[in-house]
Amino acid sequence: VRSQQHPPVRALQASAVLRRASDEHKKEPLTSSSQQHFDSPPAGHQPEQEPQGPHPSYTGQGGQESEDYESEEQLQHRILTAALEFVPEHGWTAEAIAEGAKTLGLSVAAAGMFHSDGSELVLHFVSECNTKLSKLLEKEQKLVQLGEAEKKPIDDFLRDAVEARLRMLIPYIEKWPQALSVLLLPRNIPSSLNLLTSMIDDIWHYAGDQSTDFNWYTRRAVLTGIYNTTELVMMQDSSPGFEDTWRFLENRVADAMTMSNTASQVQSTGAAVVQGLMGAAVTVSNLREQN
Amino acid sequence: VRLCRCRCRALLSRPAGAVRERRGLAAGPEMHFGFQTVTEEERREKIYQVFENVAKKYDVMNDSMTLGIHRVWKDILMHKMNPCPGTLLLDVAGGTGDIAFRFINYVRSVRQRQLQRKLKHHQNLSWQEIFESYQKNKFNSLGDSQVVVCDINREMLKVGKQKAQHLGYSEGLSWVLGNAEELPFDDDKFDVYTIAFGIRNVTRIDLALQEAYRVLKPGGRFLCLEFSHVSNPLLSRLYDLYSFQVIPVLGEVIAGDWRSYQYLVESIRQFPPQEELKAMIEDAGFFKVDYENLNFGIVAIHSGFKL
């Protein structure tokens, strides 16, 4: 009911900040709001939060134009990305987000869009790191496929992937313990667990794991353990260039490899033992028959 | 009071469209003043008189009507705002300054914590540097935050100024006489715009919301604390009983003004419920509009951003 009464109002009052994706290369849109009123296309902006779809009165010319406007989520992403550079100074807090918003030309009150404990900032950072890691691994895979690089043995691959991912934390290492505590808040556990498992999944996928049996679970559990313990070691590492951490990582990956070798050895030994016993039983029964 | 209840039922039985007209959206001269029907001009005048009469006893009446809970509501509003030092706040219909004082306290404590953290990082300062840092603290205890209290009613502003002097608030505080429907400020000025228990008394709510949009900076926040609709039926009946039987009597006994408090209670019933106010705020151009019910809907905080 409301929309049918007021579409013209919405159209004229186009957003002051949410800008067209095509404008990203132009200068910051700090024009005054009155200018916006006359410059905006008649179709106006369709924010994602409105429950109804695009109003029939707009889609005529506006259908394509409205999609070019940035959504609120994209603006929030931009603010969080800008806030990351203030984290070493302010920590993972609403203050860092406020400073980030300021650099984008927004008021500091824009930090009110997020939780005051900085959860969204940490989750955003973790998700960005995971994306970067995926891209890196994909690039390496392409090189291998094109024959320009050699395929790494599995333990080297895992070690390099985990090291690359952990190196992304280095600029924020001082405040990382705070970030870990935020990730462990009950409210954030579903999201943080999700991010962790998808990252581990990614690494195994690019490592070439195609298992469809119980191995799938054990592999992921092992790598999660390696990643988490190495992360904690890194928190307390004060050696130059974090060499203690990388050595720890190497040892853990080697352990994991040994463990899997041992496991397969145990399996084959077990099979051999069983066969031996079966053979002995058959021999004994034959001997008894003979007697 | 029973007469008012009958009128209340009669109003509610009218078709939704007519009731919406009465909620300040129509261009026509017919408006509501509590449960009476008046013209726009009459409404403005009557409301001005109401607040002129209650100004001196406003705070006392707030405490006795809400049993002191209004302080908690205002504190919750401040926590929701979570302002950092350097914020410019415009408190409209801020009358006796409750929100403004809370803002100053909040920002001051945040600033203290910030300065303490900075000092902790700076080890090995010379005595000269320490002395200078303390000097700076004295002149920057608010971190350049400011609050402007704007009210249409001279009496309410007078009471507010007296309170500020009495409580010792002087820095970062200004008092401006102005109409929420036509604010005497430039565009894109303020970080946060609040209106606590005031928007109910504005005659053209849509104009007030548009003005709020105009004076806020891009990224700025709109916060509205107001009495709202209780959906729980049992609580709603108790609330009605308390509102119509107890509050006007309190008004007569404490402030000597039964009519003003009758108006107050009726105006709460006439005000749009949460979803409708949310829609109006969205219409003014705000994004990420949301509301939070306090005390099951007796009071609601609406928040929106100028994006």
Automatic annotation (TrEMBL), chain A:
What's any GO biological process attached to this entry? ubiquinone biosynthetic process
**Swiss-Prot/TrEMBL keywords:** Lipid-binding, Mitochondrion, Transit peptide, Ubiquinone biosynthesis
Location comes to: Mitochondrion
Top-level lineage group: Eukaryota
Q: Does the keyword Membrane apply?
A: no
Physiological role: Membrane-associated protein that warps the membrane surface to access and bind aromatic isoprenes with high specificity, including ubiquinone (CoQ) isoprene intermediates and presents them directly to Coq7, therefore facilitating the Coq7-mediated hydroxylase step. Participates in the biosynthesis of coenzyme Q, also named ubiquinone, an essential lipid-soluble electron transporter for aerobic cellular respiration.
* Protein name (Swiss-Prot/TrEMBL): Ubiquinone biosynthesis protein
Source organism: Acrocephalus arundinaceus
TrEMBL record, chain B:
Q: Name one GO biological process term.
A: methylation
Database matches in SUPFAM superfamilies? S-adenosyl-L-methionine-dependent methyltransferases (SSF53335)
List keywords of the entry alphabetically: Methyltransferase, S-adenosyl-L-methionine, Transferase, Ubiquinone biosynthesis
Alphabetically, the GO molecular function entries are: 2-methoxy-6-polyprenyl-1,4-benzoquinol methyltransferase activity
Q: Which Pfam families match?
A: Ubie_methyltran
Superkingdom per UniProt = Eukaryota
Query: So what does this one do?
Result: Methyltransferase required for the conversion of 2-decaprenyl-6-methoxy-1,4-benzoquinol (DDMQH2) to 2-decaprenyl-3-methyl-6-methoxy-1,4-benzoquinol (DMQH2).
Summarize subunit and interaction data from the UniProt record for this chain. Answer: Component of a multi-subunit COQ enzyme complex, composed of at least COQ3, COQ4, COQ5, COQ6, COQ7 and COQ9. Interacts with PYURF; the interaction is direct, stabilizes COQ5 protein and associates PYURF with COQ enzyme complex.
Q: What is the protein named?
A: COQ5 protein
What organism does the record attribute this protein to?
A: Acrocephalus arundinaceus (Great reed-warbler)
Q: Which gene encodes it?
A: Coq5
